[in-house]
Amino acid sequence: MPTARTPVLFIPGLWMHADSWKSWVDLFRSAGYEPTARSWPGVATTVAETRAHPETMAGRGITEIADYYAQIIGTLPAKPIVIGHSFGGLLAQNVLGRGLAAAAIAIDAAPIKGVLPLPVSTLRSSFPVLKNPANRRRTVALTAAQFRYGFGNAVSEQESAELYHRWAIPGPGRPLFQAAFANFLPHSPAKVDTKNATRGPLLLIAGEKDHIVPPVVTRATLKQYRRSPAVTELKQIAGRGHSLCIDSGWREVADTALGWLKQRSL
């Protein structure tokens, strides 16, 4: 009888539609997995429709979004491998810490509670949202210039513009506020169970030139897991920015993820 394929759930980050994972989905399916990519709750089926109706995402926070993915996982035939980018990486760690995933790969993941470094480039990338407290209840769209600084700084200006017009969508401001103030709140939604000794393996991937989540943030995330005997590893991709999952160099990152899964017999 044929062996059941391992499910893989791809989670996009803030300002990204799930369709941006299409190349990864195709690659993982050809590698023998059963992948699916799902957008955040309130995100429409297409990029164009999401841009036309951003209000359906307004006010949604980390807990609600994480619970939404937990519900999706509950419909799968087995615990999936969860792969998330940016805030999707934080969400991947959330469900892994809850014991809902077989393993997780968090790529340039947004900082979880306990991560202290706050680089200037991170502040600048978040400023379009955090500059106005009212954005906590709104959706906010990046301009092409803001996307260029935050996502596309390690690719050409032309490629950054192409990625922006193809994939960028408005996103809820609330998760950014929750992450920004996580270390001041004892029960922050950005808190992850980093001490879980029975969870599956976790790979953290950092892009060397990322402005939104510089490697110093990812290294600080790794330190949060030091009290757990469960496998936690970090790989840094040279010369890559925050667009590393969707730009012309995506295959290097995807092959890194696949190689780690193979190494772990996952």
Highlighted features:
266 residues; alpha/beta; globular; 6-stranded parallel β-sheet; Rossmann fold
Describe this structure in words.
- With 266 residues, this protein is an alpha/beta fold.
- The protein has one domain (7-261): Rossmann fold (3-Layer(aba) Sandwich).
- Helix content is 37%, strand content 13%.
- The chain has helices at residues 22-30, 47-52, 62-74, 87-97, 120-130, 144-150, 157-167, 174-180, 215-223, 250-263, and strands at residues 7-11, 34-37, 81-85, 103-107, 139-140, 171-172, 202-207, 232-237.
- Strands 2-1-3-4-7-8 form a six-stranded parallel beta sheet, sandwiched between helices. A two-stranded antiparallel sheet has the order 5-6.
- Helix 3 packs across helix 4 (87-97).
- Cα distance spanning the termini: 20 Å
Point out poorly predicted stretches. Answer: none
Helical percent range?
25-40%
In total, how many beta strands? 8
Count of discrete domains? 1
- Global structural class: alpha/beta
- Relative strand content: 5-15%
CATH names the topology as: Rossmann fold
Query: What is the mean pLDDT?
Result: 96
The biggest beta sheet reads: 6 strands, parallel
Q: Give the CATH superfamily.
A: Alpha/Beta hydrolase fold, catalytic domain
> What would the principal axes of the Cα set say about the shape?
globular
Spatial ordering of strands, largest sheet? 2-1-3-4-7-8
Report a brief summary of the structure.
The chain has one domain: Rossmann fold (3-Layer(aba) Sandwich), CATH 3.40.50. The chain has helices at 22-30, 47-52, 62-74, 87-97, 120-130, 144-150, 157-167, 174-180, 215-223, 250-263; strands spanning 7-11, 34-37, 81-85, 103-107, 139-140, 171-172, 202-207, 232-237. It is an alpha/beta fold and 266 residues long.
